[in-house]
Design a protein that fits this description.
The complex is a heterodimer. Chain A is mainly β. Chain A is built from no helices and eleven strands. In chain B, strands 2, 4, 5, 9, 10 and 11 form a six-stranded mixed β-sheet that branches. A five-stranded antiparallel β-sheet of chain B has the order 1-3-8-7-6, with no helix packed on it. Chain B contains no helices and eleven strands. Classes of the chains: A mainly beta, B mainly beta. Chains A and B meet through β5, β9 and β10 of A and β4, β5, β9 and β10 of B.
Amino acid sequence: DTAVSQTPKYLVTQMGNDKSIKCEQNLGHDTMYWYKQDSKKFLKIMFSYNNKELIINETVPNRFSPKSPDKAHLNLHINSLELGDSAVYFCASSPRDRDYGYTFGSGTRLTVV
Amino acid sequence: KQEVTQIPAALSVPEGENLVLNCSFTDSAIYNLQWFRQDPGKGLTSLLLIQSSQREQTSGRLNASLDKSSGRSTLYIAASQPGDSATYLCAVQSSGDKLTFGTGTRLAVRP
């Protein structure tokens, strides 16, 4: 199936731990993104990578570090997790041609306890 | 800075009604506008994309319009069904290829 796939779907962890979320797209898109959806369901961009190069880096704590080993993968590593990091994290991708839109993954629900 | 607003925040209608969801954005310099649907606890499903040069797009019972100069878009849902119940999100792609989302409209269609 052509898609944006992210793992894991659910992640429950204790404060202070380090965790990673993985994302892969097989759509041949050039740009990949991480979005955070908070408790009020508002979606906000965190990072974007174009062909392994960081393009957008919004005001995000430096405990969050994206890694793009190749154009098809964008992983998100979070150090020293805090309660406020609990949210749903969505990976997305988009092609170079702006006449086509974004495709989103199914999300990773992170709960920090 | 692009800001996207959606009205109403929530809507409850009886089955069969036609309805309109509204989206407005502050910076008209957009590449495209995309409407998504999100079911509770699920991901985002793309419904319609309107390129900046287009005025509207249609898919089945859905019709989305775009007035770029006034910074507005509407999503029209004809003959609503209970299965249409979800949150509808409007998002615009603008400079830096950033997709900025609205706050969403939570739709409930009563049988």
